[in-house]
Every structure is written in structure tokens, then in C-alpha cells.
Fold NUDIX domain-containing protein.
Amino acid sequence: MHLTHPQQVFKFCPKCGSDHFRSKEDNSLQCDACGFRFYYNAASSVAAIILDEQGRLLLTRRAIDPFKGTLDLPGGFVSVDESSEEALAREIEEELGAEVLEYRYIRSYPNRYEYSGLTVFTNDAAFVCTLRDYTVIKPADDVCEVEWFFLQDVKLEDIGIKSIRTMVRDFIEHL
């Protein structure tokens, strides 16, 4: 098991502080002292597949870690009390300054990566989106650059996040 897995990182119960915080077989840790149980489930996130009128795919360049400098799709984590669709609209506004006009859910992709010394598990929902206005796109938030690619020119190895790489590959293959 990797050293950043929650079972390796969390040594003390966050409720009572006991060092009797033990791994269970159901993606959880349980405190033998107070009974507190913590599940390390996948966090929800969204990603937008956006094509322009020429059929080019919009890819962003990550301004932050993990995978700083690699290509990505616009999107991000779903906030507490927010639907995936609301998160999609918010993330597009934050990262591109654009408004989602229409969207269609495709499927979800599991992922895991290391952040702040901890393995983070995600469930990344892919949406194909059209924007109200493509001329307003401007990189912001955790995006440092926006690039358009004809599908045959996309280099999957330049996409840093595994689930996003798979998402883009599947989209290109099933068009």
C-alpha cells in the first residue's frame, strides 16, 4: 500500500485523539477507543469537453499542482450542497469566464492522485458542453492557458491527470 493512502496517513482519531484508529476492509478507519468511523470515499468532480465550431477541443494548462503545467479539461470539484451540473457551470465561469449554454453527461471516471501527502480519490463526471459565447474565454483561477486542438493533434501523454487522459481518449475514439 502506498505511503500516502489514508490508511497509512491517518494515525490518530480526529474525534478523541486516540492512537487506536484502525483500518477496516470497507474503505474506512475506525477508532477502537470511541467508535468513531471515517470513510475515505471518492470526491465528486466534473470535467467539460468543449468543441468549437471548427471541431477543435479546448484544453487548459494547469497553473497549480498536482500536475502543474500539464494539459487538462476545464472543471473541478463539486462543492458541498452543489449538484454536478451547478459545479460544471461554476467551474467554467471561474476558469474560463464563460457561460455554459448546454451540456450532456457522458459518463464518470475513477481517479486517484497524490495531493499534500495524501492519496485523493475522485469520481470525475464528463460532460460535453457548448458555451454561450466562445469569444469571452480567458484563463483564470487554476488555469494559466487555454489551447484549442484538432482531435487528431491531441497528445494524450501531455494530459497529466489519468482520468482526464482516459476521458479525452474515449471521447476521441467514440466520436
